[in-house]
Amino acid sequence: MITFELNEWRELQWKQDGMINTLRDFKIRNDKVKQLNFLVYGPVGAGKSSIINTIKTIFEGRQYISCLAAQDSAKSQTLKFKKCDVGNTKDGFLPFTFSDIMGVEKENQCGVQADDIISTLKGHVKDDYVFNPISPLSGPNDYYLEHPSLSDRMHCLVYVIAADKISLIDKDTIQKMQKVRGTANGMDLPQVVFMTRVDVACSLTKENLRHVYKSVKIEKKMEECSVTLGVPMNCIFPVRNYYKETDIIEDINCLMLHTLTKIVHFADDYVVEYTRK
């Protein structure tokens, strides 16, 4: 059985400094938009909060935990909407934010409501709103922004899917996610997948993360993910979160930075196109 290919089917730079500097220096082409907004969304335990922790760790240069992660949990640890800046006052903040939300659960009255996600994409949901699994947010409400600007909207939707659990996602969860995807399609919103836990899904990648784009198994998992969600392969990115490490590992950083570099341009393109409408 072939487990890996001799050549990478995606080229990746395994040096972090250049990518970090590129992202720090990135300029949004619309002067009125100060930050690109990314919404992380997916099943409980897929690694949404860990994604944000990993990104903040990279730019802090040390382990950083600001979002409570629900590793292998059946219930979401994130209960309210929270935009997370990247960077700090000393070194400066980067021109993008990642928003953490409650995870998707299969039961109708559990987890985040699809309508709440749609409202968030459109910029109606204010920071610190506590999600209600039974009743989605609507106006008038202190946490409902009636007339959001382009800066309030999300500029890219990031699905977070665990590579080793794609086949285990139940139909109800998929239907909820497809409802959100349908709305995002109507908004012409960029949509990408962060495919987490690649080290768990593939022993070759676990031994050496640099084999991720040589792994036949990872490629097949990406294809499975593409079929399940309807997201094209070139918008699916395998990533590895920090979850047990206490030291910085450059290969983990590089895989995430490669992905960030791509999606920041996707989001900036959306802002430009939206402005032209």
TrEMBL record:
This is G domain-containing protein. Gene3D superfamilies: P-loop containing nucleotide triphosphate hydrolases (3.40.50.300). One of its GO terms (biological process) is immune response. InterPro entries: P-loop_NTPase. The lineage of its organism: Eukaryota, Metazoa, Chordata, Craniata, Vertebrata. It comes from Astyanax mexicanus.
